[in-house]
Amino acid sequence: MINVNGIIGNDDGQYSLVKLIRDVKNEPDNQPLHIVISSPGGDGELALDMHNYLRSLNRQIITECKIQCASAASILFLAGDKRIAGCPVMIHNPWTRVEGDAEALAAASGWIGDFEKRCEKFYSDKTGLDKETISNLMKNETYIGPSEAVSLGFATEAKQTAMALIHSNNNQKTKKMGIKKRGENKLQKILAILTGEDETANMMDLTAANGDIITIDREEGEPQVGDSASPDGSYVMPDGSTIVIVDGVITEIIEPDTSDTELTRLRLKIAQLKEQLATAQANAKTAKETAQLNAIKIAGGTEWLARQCSHYKPSGRKAQMTGFTGNGGRESRTAERLAELKSKRLANI
Fold first, then answer.
1. Sheet containing 213-216: which strands, arranged edge to edge?
2. Which of 44, 133, 271, 311 has its CA 20 to 30 A from that of 226?
3. What is the full DSSP assignment across 84-151?
4. Phi/psi at 79 (nearest 5 deg)?
C-alpha cells in the first residue's frame, strides 16, 4: 500500500513524482497497486504527471481517498481503475500567485487559462460529464461527497472507515465523548467494517449552513451521536443545530437554543455573511487583475503598453550661478567651484 499524504509538490516534505516512482518500485509486482490519498492538493501539473505515470504501468490501480482529497489530489485519485471515495472530493479552477510587469502577468494569465481548459477536458474524459458541467463545478469550488462522487463518475464506490475505539473498560472516555450504546447489531457492523468484511457502507451527505458537506455512515434517518462521519470539525446546520465530528465519529449534536430563536438566526446569518465576505475578498484581487489584463489586451497588448512609457531624459544644462564677486568683478574661487560641481551633477541626470 502506498500512502500519499500532505501537499503534492517537489519541495522538502512534499509528495513528489520521484517519491511515487520509488514507492511503486517497492511494491510487489504481482499485486494491484493500492494508493491511499489524504491531501489538500498542490501542484496540478505534477499531479497530472503522476497520474500519467501510474496509467502507463499496465497494472491494476486502486485509489482510495481518506480525510481529504482536494484540488490536485483529485487528479491523482482519478488514476485508479477502482476508486474508493472515503471523503469528499473537491475540484476548483486552478490558481497561482505571480509578480511582475504586464508581460509577466499576461503570460501567467495565458498559462493558467490553458491549464484550466486541460483540467476541464481531463475531468470530462474521466467522469463522462460534459465540459460545461465540469466548468461550473470547478468555478464553484465544489466539494463532492462520497456517494455523489460515485453518481457523478469521480469514484467507483463510496466507503467510510469507522474510526471507533472499542474497549470494554473505557467507559469513562465513552461517557466523555457522549457515545451511547447502540446495540449488538451496530457493534457487529462496526467490527465488520474494521475487519474489512463489510467492503461498502451506505452513506448520507448533509450540507452545513456555510455550504460544507459532511458525510455520515447512515442510509436514512437523522444523524446520531456515535455515527461514523467525516471530515472532522464543528458544523452549524441550517436548522441551527451543531454537529461535532472528532476522529471520524459524531461526538456531540448541539440542539439550537429554542429560548432565543432570533439570536440563533442572527448568529447563523453572521456566519453566512463572514463566509461570503471571505469568498468576495479572495476573488476581488483576481477579478481586478483580470480586468487590468483585459484592458491592456484591448488597448493593444504589452507592445502598446511599452510605447506609452516615457523615455524622456533631460539633457545637461549649464549652471547659472550668482554669488559674491571680488578681485575685479570675477566670482570667488568658492563660487566658481560650486558652479562647476552643480554643472557636472546636472549633466549626469
1. 204-207, 213-216, 229-230
2. 271
3. EESS-EEE--------S-HHHHHHHHHHHHHHHHHHHHHHHHHH---HHHHHHHHHTTEEE-HHHHHH
4. -75, -15
For the ranges 45-54, 108-117, 215-224, 267-276, the lowest mean pLDDT is seen at: 267-276
Burial group, residue 136, by CB count within 10 angstroms (0-12, 13-18, 19+): exposed
192-to-199, 200, 217, 256 alpha-carbon distances in Å: 9, 10, 14, 35
Q: Three cell numbers at 311?
A: 523615455
Residue 17, pLDDT score: 95
- The backbone torsions φ and ψ at residue 348, rounded to the nearest 5 degrees and listed phi first, read -90, 0
- Give me the residues paired with residue 65 across strands: 37, 85
**Tens-place pLDDT, residues 10-39:** 988 899 999 999 999 999 988 999 999 999
pLDDT 10s digits, 156-165: 999 854 433 3
Cell of 99: 509578480
- Predicted confidence at residue 282, as pLDDT, reads 66
Number of other CB atoms surrounding residue 16 within 10 Å: 18
Distance in angstroms (rounded) separating the CA atoms of residues 307 and 309: 5
Asked whether residue 180 carries a pLDDT value surpassing 90, the answer given is: no
Cβ neighbours of residue 92 closer than 8 Å, sequence gap 6 or more? 71, 138, 139, 140, 141, 142
290 three-class SS: helix
Rg (CA), the chain: 31
Q: Which of 22-36, 142-156, 208-222, 247-261 has the lowest mean pLDDT?
A: 247-261
The C-alpha angle 65, 80, 33, rounded to 5 degrees, equals 90
Indicate the DSSP class of residue 77: H
* Predicted structure pTM score: 0.49
